[in-house]
Amino acid sequence: MGIKIVGSGLYVPTSKLSNKQLESIVETTDEWISTRTGIANRHIVSSENTVDLAYESAKRAIEHGNVDPSEIGLIIVATFTPEQLTPSTACLVQSRLRLNHQQMIAFDINAACTGFVYALSIAEQFLKAKTVKKALVIGSEVLSKIMDWEDRSTCVLFGDGAGAAVVEYDDSIEHSFYLNSSGDEQGALKTTKLSVNNPLHQEEIEPIHFYMNGQQVFKFAVTAIKETLTTLLTQNNLSLDDINLVIPHQANKRIIDKVVKDLKASSEQFFLNVSDYGNTSAASIPIALNDAITKQQIKNGDQIMLIGFGGGLTWGGCIVSI
Ligand SMILES: CC(C)(COP(=O)(O)OP(=O)(O)OC[C@H]1O[C@@H](n2cnc3c(N)ncnc32)[C@H](O)[C@@H]1OP(=O)(O)O)[C@@H](O)C(=O)NCCC(=O)NCCS
C-alpha cells in the first residue's frame, strides 16, 4: 500500500537572479550567501505566474510518464503563493490541460514548504479508496511576489518554480506517511495578514511580505528532518541503507549538512540542488525529485524518502517508489 511516482516534471522561469546580481539590490555578498546557505542562483519570474509554472511542470510530468491524461482524476496543487484566491490553481491547471472528462477533483492546499508531502498524503487517500486511478500532484510557487526586496535576510534565500508528479497506488508497496504540525510556532515563518476593509471596519492595507526568524527556523528544520526520517524508518521497519535517496526540502545546504553529521550518515544519501534554485517552498521537493531522475541518481524500482518542513510550522515525509 503505497505511492508510486509514474511521471515527474519540473519547470522554472528562464530568468535567473544570481548572488552577484543581488549585491546590487540589497547589502549582501555572493560570499555571504554561498557560505551561509549554499545557494548560488535562483530563478524568478519576469512575466509568468503560479498557474503558468504549475501547468508547464504538469505537462512535463504527464509526458515523462507517458500518462494517458484520461486516467488522471485528481489534481492537487500545493502553494501558498496562488495567482488568485479562487479559482484554485488546480482548477486553472485542469482547464489548461483540457482535462474535461466526466469526474475530476481539483483543489489547492497550503502547508507552506511541507505542502507537496501533505498533498501526496491526501492523494494517497483518494487512490487507496479507488476514487481515482491516477493523481497529479503539483508544488508551484512564485515567492518573488511576496518577498520584501529590501530585507536581505529573506530575499536572498527564495526562488520561483514548480514541480509535478503523476502518482498511482501500488498494493505491493508497504509504506506510510508521517505528518506533523505546531501552530504554536506560527511566528517563525509567516506572511503579513490580509487586511479587512469593509463598511464596518477599515485597516491599513499592507503589502503581503514574508518574514522569518532564521535561527529558530534553522534549529527547527534540523530537528524536523531527523524526527521525520527516524520515524519513517521505524514505522516501515527499514534502515537508512534501504532507502536509495533522501530528498529533503531544499532550504539551506547547512541544514542538510548538519542532519548528515548528526545522523552519522553519508552526504551522498541526501539529494541537494539548492545551489541552482534556492528555496522554492512547496515546489522544492518535486523539483529535486525530477532533478534526481534526470541526473540518474535514482532509477525505476528505487525507494525514495521525501521530507518537508516549513511554515505553520509543519513537517513530515513519506517513502515512495519510482
Ligand atoms: C537565514 C540564515 C541563512 C542566516 O544565517 P545565520 O548564520 O543564522 O546568520 P544570522 O541570522 O546569525 O546573521 C548573521 C549576520 O548576517 C547578517 N545578514 C543577514 N542576511 C544577510 C545577507 N543576505 N547578506 C549579508 N549579511 C546578512 C545579519 O544581519 C547578521 O549581522 P549582525 O551579526 O551584524 O547582526 C540561516 O539562519 C538559515 O538558513 N535559517 C533557516 C532559514 C530557512 O531555511 N527558512 C525557510 C525554511 S522552510
Mind explaining what this structure looks like?
Strand 4 (72-78), helix 4 and strand 5 form a beta-alpha-beta unit. The chain has helices at 19-22, 30-37, 50-64, 89-96, 115-128, 152-155, 214-235, 253-262, 274-277, 284-294; strands spanning 2-11, 16-18, 41-43, 72-78, 105-109, 134-141, 161-170, 177-181, 189-191, 197-198, 201-202, 210-212, 245-248, 303-310, 314-321. The protein is of the alpha+beta class and 322 residues long. Helices cover 31% and strands 25% of the residues. Helix 3 packs across helix 4 and helix 7 (214-235) crosses helix 8. The protein is globular. The strands form 5 sheets. It has a 5-stranded mixed beta sheet, with helices on both faces. A 4-stranded mixed beta sheet has the order 8-15-14-13, with helices on both faces. It has 2 domains: 2-170, 3-Layer(aba) Sandwich (Peroxisomal Thiolase, Chain A, domain 1), CATH 3.40.47.10; 177-321, Thiolase/Chalcone synthase (Peroxisomal Thiolase, Chain A, domain 1, 3-Layer(aba) Sandwich), CATH 3.40.47.10. The chain has 10 helices and 15 strands. The structure holds coenzyme A.
Radius of gyration: 19 Å
Poorly predicted regions: none
Can you identify the CATH superfamily of the largest domain? Answer: Thiolase/Chalcone synthase
CATH class designation of the largest domain: Alpha Beta
Number of separate strands? 15
| Total domain modules | 2
- Cα(first) to Cα(last) distance is 14 Å
Residues in helix, %: 25-40%
SSE topology string: EEHHEHEHEHEHEEEEEEHEHHHEE
Gross morphology is globular
Q: State mean pLDDT (0 to 100 scale).
A: 96
Task: Assign the CATH architecture of the largest domain.
Answer: 3-Layer(aba) Sandwich
Strand percent estimate: 25-35%
According to CATH, the fold-level topology of the largest domain is Peroxisomal Thiolase, Chain A, domain 1
